[in-house]
């Protein structure tokens, strides 16, 4: 057995890399919650009455935002979610590229929000998909 491992160390390393690479999206979805593309986000907004939370700075939010979204900057979400969000409705987290949303999602899921979604690619992907903005 030991000789087999020594003879096939490169093969075993490749298998290990493949397993880690293939399991990374599953682990991320369990930690952060599901990421949805622009068309799926639109379905969640329209059919599930999702709350859209824009995590960017207020000045960026004022320039352009998704219609019916509310602005709660990522650094203040832990103070404001209780008074501004309804735990019974789904939440769609958006920011410029998705990084802030991945940080805020575990917080909301940890305090009892059942459906927390992240806009995959953030507002950059929303723009690329030619989805509408409210100004």
Structure description:
The protein has 135 residues and is of the alpha/beta class. Helix content is 55%, strand content 13%. The model has no long low-confidence stretch (mean pLDDT 90). Strands 1-5-4-2-3 form a five-stranded parallel sheet. Helix 4 (58-63) links the parallel strand 2 and strand 3. The protein folds into two domains: 1-31; 33-128, Oxidized Rhodanese, domain 1. The chain contains seven helices and five strands, in the order ααβαβαβαβαβα.
Strand order of the largest sheet: 1-5-4-2-3
Structural class: alpha/beta
What is the name of the CATH class of the largest domain?
Answer: Alpha Beta
**So how many helices?**
7
Kindly report the CATH topology of the largest domain: Oxidized Rhodanese, domain 1
Instruction: Please state the overall shape, judged from the principal axes of the Cα atoms.
Output: elongated
What fraction of the residues are assigned to beta strands by DSSP? 5-15%
Write down the Rg: 19 Å
Return the average pLDDT rounded to an integer.
Answer: 90
The domain count comes to: 2
Question: Keyphrases for this structure?
Answer:
single chain, 135 residues, alpha/beta, Oxidized Rhodanese, domain 1, 2 domains, five-stranded parallel β-sheet, 13% strand
């Amino acid at each position: 057995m030991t000789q087999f491992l020594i003879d096939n160390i490169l093969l075993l390393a490749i298998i290990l890399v493949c397993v880690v690479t293939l399991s990374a999206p599953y682990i991320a979805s369990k930690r952060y919650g599901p990421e949805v593309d622009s068309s799926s986000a639109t379905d969640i907004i329209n059919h599930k009455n999702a709350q859209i939370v824009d995590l960017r700075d207020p000045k960026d939010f004022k320039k352009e935002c998704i219609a019916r979204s509310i602005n709660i900057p990522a650094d203040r979400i832990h103070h404001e979610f209780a008074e501004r969000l309804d735990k019974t409705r789904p939440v769609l987290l958006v920011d410029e590229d998705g990084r802030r949303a991945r940080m805020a999602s575990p917080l909301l899921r940890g305090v009892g929000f059942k459906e927390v979604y992240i806009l995959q690619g953030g507002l950059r992907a929303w723009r690329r998909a030619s989805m509408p903005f409210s100004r």
